[in-house]
Design goal:
The complex is a heterodimer of chains A (about 120) and B (about 110). By secondary structure, chain A is an all-beta fold. Chain A has strands at about 5, 10-15, 20-25, 30-35, 45-50, 55, 65-70, 75-80, 90-95, 105, 110-115. Chain A has a single domain (about 5-100, about 105-115), classed as Sandwich (Immunoglobulin-like). Chain B is globular. Classes of the chains: A mainly beta (about 120), B mainly beta (about 110).
C-alpha cells in the first residue's frame, strides 16, 4: 500500500514568489493534516481536513497560507507571497480514525521549502 | 499554552548501550501520547499510549506513560546503529491535533 506522498521534495524560491505544495494521503483516509517544522523548532500543527472540509485551521500562521482539499482526496498548501520566515519542512499526514481513541497519523516525507 | 518537552535534546551512545528518552507534557486536555522515529524523512509511528502504567513493547523498544506525573519514557535496549534517529514525542489533546516536542536526536556509534 502506498504511503503518504508529497511533492515536491524540495523547493527553493525567492521572497515574494508563490509556491504550492501537494500532499496525497493514503487512499481511504478521510483525515489529512498539515504540519510545519521551521529550523530549530518543533513540528507545529497547521490545519486538519476531514474529507474536503477544514476541521481546524488554528495553526495557520497568516492569510498568506491557503490550503485546499477539493474532492476530499489530495490537498494543496499555497504560500503567496512567500516570506523568509516561511522556510522549513512542511509535513503532511493522514489518518483513518475519526473520533475513536486511536489517532495514528501516517506522515509523508515532507517538502523542504527554502525562501531566499 | 499546550507544551511538550523532551530530554535530552541530543544523545550519543555506543552500540549495545541502553537509553531512556524522556517526555513531559502540559496540555489542557489529554487523549493520547505518541512516539515517532524520524530518520531521513517522514516520522514513523512507534507507540500510542493512552493509559498509565501499561508498558507498550516492540522488540527492543518499550514505552510507558504516567498520566499523574504527566510524562512518558521511551526505552531502547541493546542499541544498534540503525536506531540513530530523532525520536519525537507528541501529545494529542483532541482528535484533530497533535502537539510535538522538539525531539531527541540519538546517535549510536559502533
Amino acid at each position: 500500500e502506498a504511503g503518504v506522498t508529497q511533492f515536491p521534495s524540495h523547493s527553493v524560491i525567492e521572497k515574494g514568489q508563490t509556491v504550492t505544495l501537494r500532499c496525497d494521503p493514503i487512499s481511504g483516509h478521510d483525515n489529512l493534516y498539515w504540519y510545519r517544522r521551521v529550523m530549530g523548532k518543533e513540528i507545529k500543527f497547521l490545519l486538519h481536513f476531514v474529507k474536503e472540509s477544514k476541521q481546524d485551521e488554528s495553526g495557520m500562521p497568516n492569510n498568506r497560507f491557503l490550503a485546499e482539499r477539493t474532492g476530499g482526496t489530495y490537498s494543496t498548501l499555497k504560500v503567496q507571497p512567500a516570506e523568509l520566515e516561511d522556510s522549513g519542512v512542511y509535513f503532511c499526514a493522514s489518518s483513518q480514525n475519526w473520533r475513536g481513541a486511536g489517532n495514528e497519523q501516517f506522515f509523508g516525507p515532507g517538502t523542504r521549502l527554502t525562501v531566499l | 499554552e499546550d507544551k511538550v518537552v523532551q530530554s535530552p535534546l541530543s544523545l550519543v551512545v555506543h552500540e549495545g548501550d541502553t537509553v531512556t528518552l524522556n517526555c513531559s507534557y502540559e496540555v489542557t486536555n489529554f487523549r493520547s501520547l505518541l512516539w515517532y522515529k524520524q530518520e531521513k524523512k517522514a516520522p514513523t509511528f512507534l507507540f500510542m499510549l493512552t493509559s498509565s502504567g501499561i508498558e507498550k513493547k516492540s522488540g527492543r523498544l518499550s514505552s510507558i506513560l504516567d498520566k499523574k506525573e504527566l510524562f512518558s519514557i521511551l526505552n531502547i535496549t541493546a542499541t544498534q546503529t540503525g536506531d540513530s534517529a530523532i525520536y519525537l514525542c507528541a501529545v494529542s489533546p483532541s482528535y484533530d491535533k497533535v502537539i510535538f516536542g522538539p525531539g531527541t536526536s540519538l546517535s549510536v556509534i559502533p
